[in-house]
TrEMBL record:
The entry's keywords: Membrane, Transmembrane, Transmembrane helix
Domain of life from the UniProt record: Eukaryota
Name used for this protein in its record: Saccharopine dehydrogenase NADP binding domain-containing protein
SUPFAM superfamilies attached to this UniProt entry: NAD(P)-binding Rossmann-fold domains
Residue intervals of the Saccharopine dehydrogenase NADP binding domain: 14-145
Single biological process term from Gene Ontology: glycolipid biosynthetic process
Length: 423
């Protein structure tokens, strides 16, 4: 049993670290619009001027935001980070690249008993966190939960949702889940692209290629491995959905997170559970063109002369989809689960929809906010749900049904479309 650290009488329930960044600002705007006065919170960053400007903007949304406390904390000054972390129950981290700015915050959270969630998609960094902090976080009952944004809540919670349905409604284990992105409208932020570029500079090309090629590189170091192989790169015809699919750019992140969830839960999804992610491109040509685009993106991220050549096209850190793009944006996954084969029984198919009528960065802000509120406000419900109480976790293993319920209340869709059809 983990020995939880007392967090009684701290000034804040949630502190937004990196509040003035693109996603941090969206998160603070969401708090101002939907949760004014509902919990004790503060905004943290390294620039008082930017924080004060953000607070003035939030005051236009709700007048009570004029009293939101500001915390000056710089990743280069561990004392200031410790001071920030020690004042709150939960840190919601939006300041990337996380491999540059995040470890000191995680270190302080583990030492000081503060829950943590973030929006990273940096699997090499999280792999390092697992090796450095997982056991200590387990011992202290501290949940360290990366991947609480678009990467990888839809994939991770969507898979958990399908597997849970298969267990409870069909009384079967799951053989595999395919997540197919059916539609996504939105853009990329400069921070996302900058992080991808800088991350590749931290390791040699061969080291990075070896790491990203390992489908289980977020699993416990000595954990059991399954039969999942490399992520799809060429066009694939998905027979259950009857669509041609191409590779999905974030599959190397999301697939590893889902597999870590299964491993942390004792491989409870299935005896040899498999997971893949694809992108609906309607026909073979569209799928093949997606392959070419993915290869081009990888080359731009890897080579500086291509970054210089296409620099005019790449948004700068802090920039992202416009307000018009945010209004038009939305996304939708179909999750297709297949039950495990049993003697004399045909496998069954379960189809589910996971969606949000918001642009992905807006969704990310909403998802990390609800994750932070899960950790801050619902410890009893998390315990009743049987979620894991400490370690470097995933959204599904740390919050599972509690987070799913909160997201549904905010307009996200988790819906079973078809249950138990024969293959």
């Amino acid at each position: 049993m983990a020995a939880a650290v007392s967090r009684d009488n701290r000034p804040f329930q949630v502190v937004v670290w990196g509040a003035t960044g693109y996603t941090g600002r969206l998160m603070c705007e969401q708090i101002a619009a939907e949760y004014p006065g509902a919990f004790r919170w503060g905004m943290a960053g390294r620039s008082r001027g930017k924080l004060e400007a953000l607070r003035a903007d939030l005051e236009k949304i709700d007048a009570r935001c004029k009293d939101v406390p500001l915390i000056i904390a710089d990743a280069a000054d561990q004392t200031s980070i410790d001071s920030m972390v020690g004042q709150t129950d939960v840190i919601a981290a939006c300041a990337g690249p996380f491999f540059l700015y995040g470890e000191g915050v995680v270190d302080a959270c583990v030492r000081l008993g503060t829950q943590y969630c973030d929006i990273t998609g940096e699997t090499p960094w999280v792999r390092d966190l697992i090796r450095k902090y997982h056991d200590a976080a387990v011992a202290k009952g501290v949940r360290i939960v990366p991947f609480c944004g678009q990467d990888s809540v839809p994939s991770d919670l969507g898979t958990w949702f399908v597997v849970d349905h298969i267990k409870k409604k069909l009384n079967r284990k799951c053989d595999k889940v395919d997540a197919v992105l059916m539609r996504m409208e939105g853009g990329f932020s400069g921070g996302t692209i900058s992080t991808a570029i800088k991350m590749t500079e931290q390791r040699t090309p061969s080291e990075m290629a070896k790491l990203l090629a390992d489908p289980y590189h977020l699993d416990p170091p000595d954990g059991r491995r399954g039969s999942d192989g490399p992520d799809a790169l060429m066009p694939v015809y998905h027979k259950e959905l009857r669509v041609w699919c191409g590779p999905f750019p974030m599959a190397p992140v999301n697939t590893r997170v889902v597999r870590r969830s299964n491993a942390l839960l004792g491989h409870a999804y299935g005896d040899d559970f498999k997971y893949s992610e694809l992108w609906n491109r309607h026909n073979w040509l569209g799928a093949f063109l997606t392959t070419l685009v993915i290869v081009s993106i990888v080359l731009v991220v890897r080579f500086k002369f291509l970054q210089q050549l296409f620099g005019w096209f790449i948004p700068k850190p802090g920039e992202g989809p416009s307000e018009e793009d945010q209004r038009k944006g939305h996304w939708k996954y179909y999750m297709v689960g297949l039950t495990q084969e049993e003697p004399g029984v045909k496998p069954k198919v379960v189809k589910a929809k996971v969606a949000d009528p918001h642009e992905p960065y807006v969704s990310t802000a909403r998802m990390v906010l609800e994750s932070a509120l899960c950790l801050a406000l619902e410890p009893d419900n998390l315990k009743k749900a049987g979620t894991l109480e400490g370690g470097v976790l995933t959204p599904a293993t740390a919050m599972g049904p509690v987070l799913l319920h909160r997201l549904r209340k905010k307009g996200f869709t988790f819906e079973i479309l078809e249950s138990g059809a024969s293959t």
